Amino acid sequence: MKAKHQRLTLGVVALVAIIGAALLAMSALKDQAAYFYSPADVKRTRIEPGKAVRLGGMVADKSIVRQPDGVTIRFVVADGADTVPVVFKGIVPDLFKENSGVVAEGRFDAGGTFIADNILAKHDERYMPPQLEGDKHKTGKVE
Amino acid sequence: MIAEAGLAALWLAFALALLQLGLGVAGLTGGRDVLLGAVRPVAVVQGLLTAIAFVMLIWLFLRSDMSVELVALNSHSDKPWLYKFAGTWGNHEGSMLLWVAVLAFAGAAVALFERRLDERTLMATLAAQAFIGIGFYAFLLFSSNPFTRLDPAPAQGQGLNPLLQDPGLAFHPPTLYFGYVGLSIAFSFAVGALVTRDVGADFARAMRPWVLISWVFLTLGITAGSYWAYYELGWGGWWFWDPVENASLMPWLAATALLHSVTVLATRDGLRAWTVMLAVVAFSMSMVGTFLVRSGILTSVHAFAVDPTRGSFILALLVIYIGGAMALYGFRVGTVREGSTFEAVSREGALVANNLLLSAILGIVLIGTLYPLGVEAVTGDKLSVGPPYFNAAAGPLALILVAIMAVGPLLKWRRDTLKPLAKRLALPILITALALAAVLAMAPGIGIFPLLGLVLALGVGAASVAPLWKRNLRRTPLFTYGMVIAHLGIAVSLAGMACESAFTKETLVAARLGETEHVGPFAVRLDGVAPIAGPNWTALEATLTVTRGDGKPFILKPEARMFPSPPTETSEAAIKTVFDGQLYTVLGKADEQGRWQLRLWWKPWVTLIWLGGVLIALGGLLSLIGHMRRERKLLDRKLYG
């Protein structure tokens, strides 16, 4: 094979590989990207049960209920407009408490309860999930 | 005075970088060799000055000089000295200074030790290295000055993020940065070679050791970071596909591809344009990673709540450097002559497949990492891309890549046939088949990824030592051992990943004192929970007595720690390493009835993941030594005939 042909072949193969990877990535993203919803968004849009999503808002006052097994909790995420019930089995982060911000990762069951696999709480004053910060995060120093 | 001295050193280094660029450009365009002669010493002094600035900052942290803003914001006089020391880079400004120091150090190392590269190309390389330096010095001096004074000085500092108060902080960031920023050498080499139109086998042989050493550091840094996250976060996972982790993985993927293509260029003078491209891409990924981590657009323990204008500054640098290098590449690639050709079934062919797969994985990781940022910028929707995407998209490609890795080293350069290959692969294939049968018989329920991973790991482990088959082991060059060990490391690591995902057992309970819980082969008894105090924290510490079958019992003490400054709680997992895995215990919260939450994991063979990482780095190191020995021999022969 001539060197020129070889370079052309390699170029074409590389191009095909790159396009293939991009297509693979795009199709996987379509199924797997977890969108972020507030309780108001949940009310507005119908979210398929079982699809991975993130739910963010405040833990409603007096809503945390410990279950008898000692490791499961139920609580309500609110955003001022609407509320969503959440179940979580695991050790909650240290700064998870009522009237404080929370992001839960998981999925909805058929009954509209959010089954959280993971809970992210506001970590401390200087390390804050941007989803909870919103505009404050964009405009200046996080305090 | 120390802060001022550090700042002065930094300004001087900045001026020298400008001088270095000027000398290089003037020398190359005017052809005046006198100017070129000055480039090397300037690069060395520039490296020394940045090192001085960095040492000054360490000193300020060790002395807890609260009149320096950075120290006051990120340190505390109660901290143990190790964290005062490592805390130097546990913040935005300090870590950027470390970044720049490594960049200047890399330039100085090239100026001191590089003897094989054509002199003019070397000068162009050092000029390019200085050009990168200029942008990042400007970033430090104008928007991230670590030496800013605070007046009046506070009596006490605000302390370091407790998650970072771990010996890992002393090791992980410097190692990672040496790898990350060390790749700048490959970038500058590529730019230099494009400028002087000097892409060929000699260029590749000169570049290879620099790529190898950066890659070894990068591998160690990622391995260390993974283990640190594993034991410090208390989540029991070893890789989270967090954007910050991806930021370190992407340069590694590009550097791994580069490492293999540079071998083709050095040995067979093929893949010229592609290798130069990869050298540019590898460090570009380092810069993209720096942008992701240091701009404040991501939130993680790595993103030290920074001023958003800095993001624009790094983004501008990114556009200038990556855009500039790509433009140069576009103009000059046509003049890079074609190298020698090869057949599809050959060592080169396998290495091309390796490169394409690594690039495809790199693309998938890059898209997944940037997609949420892009979507948020365009539509305002917030979304996250997590493990399901990365595993689904990159997993299959990684498994194919590993399979090719088993075959590639057994192929001859230039042209080979499949028949002798089948013969050499017979034993590994037999092992793969037996492994498949054994895994299916003993663990029928495991998922498809762990199954393929485990079976491939065994087969590839056997195949990776096959290049030593029937060779005189004492005459086999060191770099062949390096390759064998690195490939074996991949198999070992893959086996660990597959076992961890297939066989992990988890128990999550609320236990009363004296109760015994079971996880895997272990019985864990909660004996008590007591308060304890450390140098700058207090904690609740559980005492767990663990027995495995009839074995001798041992004690594990997981803690929940409270740090007063800044006020934070962290969970310190207690881990017992046994030959076939790790028992991982986490203490949770107490409930009203006096029960304590306990999370217990039994992770069989999980340690293989990091052992594999260390083997990969060791392989890289052996290969580096082997190549340098051979190069020296060739150089001596050339000089003394």
From TrEMBL, chain A:
GO MF entry, a single one: metal ion binding
Residue intervals on the Cytoplasmic side: 1-7
GO biological process terms, semicolon-separated: cytochrome complex assembly; protein-heme linkage
Major place of residence: membrane
UniProt-listed SUPFAM superfamilies: Heme chaperone CcmE
InterPro entries in the cross-refs: CcmE, CcmE-like_sf, NA-bd_OB-fold
Compartment(s): Cell membrane; Membrane
Record's GO cellular component terms: plasma membrane
Residue numbers on the Extracellular membrane side: 29-143
Membrane topology recorded in Swiss-Prot or TrEMBL: Single-pass type II membrane protein
Assigned keywords, A-Z: Cell membrane, Cytochrome c-type biogenesis, Heme, Iron, Membrane, Metal-binding, Signal-anchor, Transmembrane, Transmembrane helix
Positions bound to heme: H123, Y127
Function: Heme chaperone required for the biogenesis of c-type cytochromes. Transiently binds heme delivered by CcmC and transfers the heme to apo-cytochromes in a process facilitated by CcmF and CcmH.
Family of this protein: Belongs to the CcmE/CycJ family.
HAMAP family in UniProt: CcmE
NCBIfam families referenced in this protein's UniProt entry, alphabetically: PRK13254.1-1, PRK13254.1-5
Name of this chain's protein: Cytochrome c-type biogenesis protein CcmE
Gene expressing this chain: ccmE
Automatic annotation (TrEMBL), chain B:
Any GO CC annotation of this UniProt entry: plasma membrane
The keyword Transmembrane belongs to this UniProt entry's keyword annotation: yes
Gene Ontology MF terms in the entry: heme binding; heme transmembrane transporter activity
Keywords (A to Z) from UniProt: Cell inner membrane, Cell membrane, Cytochrome c-type biogenesis, Membrane, Transmembrane, Transmembrane helix
Segments forming domain Cytochrome c-type biogenesis protein CcmF C-terminal: 315-625
Membrane topology: Multi-pass membrane protein
Record localization: Cell inner membrane
Organism superkingdom: Bacteria
GO-annotated biological processes: cytochrome complex assembly
Keyword match Membrane: yes
Record domain Cytochrome c assembly protein: where: 89-295
Record field: transmembrane: 6-30, 42-62, 96-113, 122-142, 177-197, 209-229, 249-266, 273-293, 313-331, 352-373, 393-413, 425-442, 448-466, 478-498, 605-625
Free-text function comment from the UniProt entry: Required for the biogenesis of c-type cytochromes. Possible subunit of a heme lyase.
Family membership noted in the UniProt record: Belongs to the CcmF/CycK/Ccl1/NrfE/CcsA family.
UniProt xrefs under PANTHER family: CYTOCHROME C ASSEMBLY PROTEIN-RELATED, CYTOCHROME C-TYPE BIOGENESIS PROTEIN CCMF
Name of the protein described by the UniProt record: Cytochrome c-type biogenesis protein CcmF
Biological source species: Sphingobium boeckii
